[in-house]
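Hey,
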Amino acid sequence: MTSIEASNTQRGSGRIDGVDLLRGVAIFFVLMNHVNMRLLGAEVHYTDGLPKQLVSSLVWNGQFGVQIFFAVSGFLITATTLRRWGSLSRVSLRGFYLMRFARIVPLLLSLLAVLSLLHFAHVKYFVVSAKTGGLGRALFAALTFHVNVLEARSGYLPGSWDILWSLSVEEIFYLFFPLVARFLGRGKMLIVLLLGLVVMGPFARTVLTHGNEVWKEYSYLGGMDAIALGCLTALLLSRFRFSRRAVWILAIVGPALLILILGFSIRLKFGVWLEAVWI
């Protein structure tokens, strides 16, 4: 039993406070990002006169929020799989896919039904344009989890459809996760594969985009590194028990890194640019 699991057992709850806190942070940044874009689209210049770093930290960290969601998702899915079946190699394919189906499909179908009605009613900001393939193409992309591919090729869908790009990345990962876990979960190959995804993530968001700004943020590999990192964290916690001192160190270092990345992004980017120029 890991230190985290022991703590949860003592509280009599299956929830992890740190994970809920990360979810809250992610929700805040994603919502602020979308609210900001809607206000800017309405030409409400509410950020005039505010420090650039403050504005950047509050309303332009939506992508980081999504990455946090991905990491949390990978952690929880892996931890749940270990708890249900004991090890990744013993995962039930039927059980795993039924669990994902029950969690995703009913809500997804309900959302698509509402969005389709709003499209047919010609409600502003909900009509899927012919430029992106129309309603039928958007529905097909949503149901087959490639909204990100459609937008990279044809342009952005309305905001209420655009959010499904992250679901596309997540569900493609989980389409293969139980299969890979079943056959590679006993040895170290699964760890190697997950580490490979973590390494490929930064390349997927830069050199592999070939100048496509949408694919820079929405690519499969560009999001799967965070999911893989969450999976690795769950595997680490399942095999090692951290001392109280180590937990306290991580509890300090983790938030400090989050504050540095989310709160000082402009200075960090300038520092990287300055280093590149001098080198």
